[in-house]
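To illustrate the input format used throughout this study, we show a single complete record. The first block contains the structure-token representation of the backbone; no residue identities are included at this stage. The design step must infer an amino acid for every position from geometry alone.
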């Protein structure tokens, strides 16, 4: 009998951007592939109890839908009580490909269709917009402005002094904006009040913006960002004429609004599987962040909703078809 293949892997619990597993494994572990079984070993995360080393043996005949994404590996396990999805990371793509070759290549009909549609979608955005220069430019400008404002030693004292400093730098200060300084609708988009504020916004921009830029194209995406940000600033000052608002969150919500408009159009070139995936993830993002805006003080929900609506309308104007000439148009 040939020696089993053993791989070092890393497990994650309930991660949005990493492969999760149903066994509550967390951290380093191992994957052993035998002729008839796959054996997973790691420490099991248990609430209010110490982690415990556990082992799960999976029958090879029950494994279907094996696929990889870079260093991530996923597969489904068909069982009497329903299917389970198992995922983990390995050291590099070569190891992931090796595991893919050793596990069964059986695909369920539903998975085969969904997997093919996701591949078609990525082929299309690779064709039209293989890189994302606009996102990196926007990140650079936002961070540079924040650093320059931080180097300005005035306004490092009380909250009132900090507020006055933001006004000097171009915040959306209601009385000034409504009395002719309309440029504040734009400049306020690139100002942030704290390290936490800019860190959260830039992380959100990077997470959602790269995909949206590749769907719209860089120039159209930049237009979507600016129109959404101005819509958010305008909604903020119209809702509260005494507002003193800063931040890119209105533009970020607008990017999401534009994405919703894009995937809602007929003949967009976004396959049905991807539309379903995106709607589910965007709904959770919007519910969480809008809900949090009503709980946490100093959150400008008017800017968020104004940016979302403005981005949705702009998205209909700026969206394009992702269909590639000569490619399957499904």
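Output of the design step:
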């Amino acid at each position: 009998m040939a020696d089993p293949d053993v791989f070092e892997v890393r497990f994650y619990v309930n991660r949005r951007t990493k492969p999760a597993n149903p066994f509550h494994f967390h951290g380093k572990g191992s994957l052993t592939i035998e002729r008839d079984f796959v054996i997973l070993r790691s420490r099991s995360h248990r609430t209010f109890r110490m982690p415990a080393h556990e082992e799960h043996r999976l029958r090879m005949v029950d494994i279907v839908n094996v696929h990889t994404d870079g260093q991530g590996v996923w597969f489904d396990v068909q069982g009497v009580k329903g299917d389970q999805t198992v995922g983990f990371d390995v050291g590099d793509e070569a190891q992931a490909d090796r595991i893919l070759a050793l596990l069964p290549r059986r695909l369920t009909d539903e998975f085969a269709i969904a997997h093919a549609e996701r591949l078609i979608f990525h082929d299309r955005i690779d064709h039209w917009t293989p890189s994302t220069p606009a996102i990196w430019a926007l990140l650079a400008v936002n961070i540079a402005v924040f650093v320059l404002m931080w180097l300005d030693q005035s306004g490092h004292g009380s909250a009132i002094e900090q507020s006055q400093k933001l006004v000097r730098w171009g915040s959306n200060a209601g009385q000034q904006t409504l009395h002719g300084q309309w440029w504040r609708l734009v400049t306020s988009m690139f100002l942030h009040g704290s390290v936490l504020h800019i860190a959260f916004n830039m992380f959100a921009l990077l997470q959602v913006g790269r995909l949206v830029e590749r769907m719209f194209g860089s120039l159209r995406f930049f237009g979507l960002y600016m129109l959404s940000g101005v819509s958010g600033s305008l909604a903020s000052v119209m809702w509260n004429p005494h507002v003193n608002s800063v931040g890119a969150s209105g533009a970020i919500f607008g990017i999401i609004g534009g994405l919703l408009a894009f995937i809602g159009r007929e003949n967009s070139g976004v396959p049905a599987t991807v539309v379903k995936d995106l709607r589910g993830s965007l709904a959770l993002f919007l519910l969480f962040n809008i809900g949090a805006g009503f709980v946490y003080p100093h959150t400008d929900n008017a800017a968020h909703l104004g940016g979302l609506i403005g981005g949705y309308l702009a998205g209909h104007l700026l969206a394009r078809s992702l269909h590639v000439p000569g490619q399957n148009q499904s």
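Structural context for interpreting the output: Residues 272-295 form the longest helix (24 residues). The radius of gyration is 24 Å.
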